[in-house]
Automatic annotation (TrEMBL):
Entries under SMART domains matching the protein: ChtBD3
SUPFAM superfamilies: Carbohydrate binding domain, Lysozyme-like
Ranges where the Chitin-binding type-3 domain occurs: 36-80
GO cellular component: extracellular region
Top-level taxon: Bacteria
Gene Ontology annotations of biological process type: carbohydrate metabolic process; cell wall macromolecule catabolic process; chitin catabolic process; defense response to fungus
Active site: 149 (proton donor)
Protein name: Chitinase
Keyword Hydrolase: yes
Signal peptide (from-to): 1-30
One Gene Ontology term of the molecular function aspect: carbohydrate binding
Length: 296
């Protein structure tokens, strides 16, 4: 899979995955805190697991752990809003697990639904801003683009290993402490380059500059890096992909933010069409119109 870099914070391109059949849209429902099991120091938890702590509050595991205390090990646990009257819970994603599995029937198990929902707390406005239609459109747009980038959530790392040594910019003051060839593409939007690992890690509070392998070893971290790009980076575009969807600017601007310098304005219409087709399919699975301005 070839990888291209068009700006300081941009990503790469992969072939889209197989077209899934459609399922009727269903809605996820929020649960009360009391419905979750009590936390136990003797239990092993996976990313996305939700527990009720002794303080009566709920916490969601952002990373797998062997029963670490939610109030002490805050890197592993995040507060989870679930009481009546609270805002939409972090885990109440507009895409159900059944819909996610339908979108990615051949996905790598690394790209888990629980890893994605565990990552949502990093950017609570993602797929949680505006009307229900807008929320679902943004979720469909994000998942369509990551599907295209990873061949249907199959590839965890960049496939062309010959590119690996190229993603180190030694002009940066922090250099490449993990090694010349350590900053290859990883994750749902194939994060690459030392400066991108530095920027994403700083934003997320994770040392990805020194440990870029976390992106290929921890599902929640991988999803967080994709959400970091989606919500904060405009790449060669004029706005972030998140802003494009919540403002009504349209799906075409998400393509421009991710790979516009290589695909938009007639440069690679086949790749643009691949992203648009996937977005239309995922919108249908979620039961919403894809809206206008689909192309870039």
């Amino acid at each position: 899979m070839s990888r291209r870099r068009m700006s300081a914070v941009v990503t790469a391109l992969a072939l889209a995955g197989a077209v899934p059949a459609f399922l009727p849209a269903t809605e996820a429902s929020a649960a009360s805190c009391s419905s979750y099991p009590a936390w136990s120091a003797d239990a092993n938890y996976n990313a996305g697991d939700i527990v009720r702590y002794a303080d009566g509050k709920a916490y969601i595991a952002e990373h797998a752990n062997p029963g670490y205390d939610p109030l002490i090990s805050t890197w592993y646990w995040e507060p989870y809003a679930c009481d009546a009257g609270s805002e939409t819970p972090v885990g109440n994603f507009v895409v159900t697990e059944a819909q996610f599995n339908q979108m990615f029937p051949g996905r790598n198990s690394f790209y888990s639904y629980s890893g994605l929902t565990a990552a949502l707390s990093a950017y609570p406005g993602f797929a949680n801003t505006g009307s229900d239609t807008v929320k679902k459109q943004e979720a469909a747009a994000f998942l369509a683009n990551v599907s295209h980038e990873t061949g249907g959530l199959v590839h965890i790392v960049e496939q062309n290993t010959a590119n690996y040594p190229h993603y180190c910019d030694w002009s940066q003051p922090y250099g490449c402490p993990a090694g010349q060839a350590a900053y290859y593409g990883r994750g749902p939007i194939q994060l690459s380059w030392n400066f991108n690992y530095k920027a994403a890690g700083d934003a997320l509070g994770i040392d990805l500059l020194n440990n870029p392998w976390l992106v290929q070893n921890d599902s929640a971290v991988a999803w967080k890096t994709a959400l970091w790009y989606w919500n904060t980076q405009s790449g060669p575009g004029s706005m972030t992909a998140h802003n494009a969807m919540v403002s009504g600017a349209g799906f075409g601007h998400t393509i421009r933010a991710i790979n516009g310098s290589l695909e938009c304005d007639g440069k690679n219409p086949a790749q643009v069409q691949s992203r648009v087709t996937k977005y239309q399919q995922f919108s249908q699975i979620l039961g919403v119109s894809p809206g206008g301005n689909l192309y870039c």
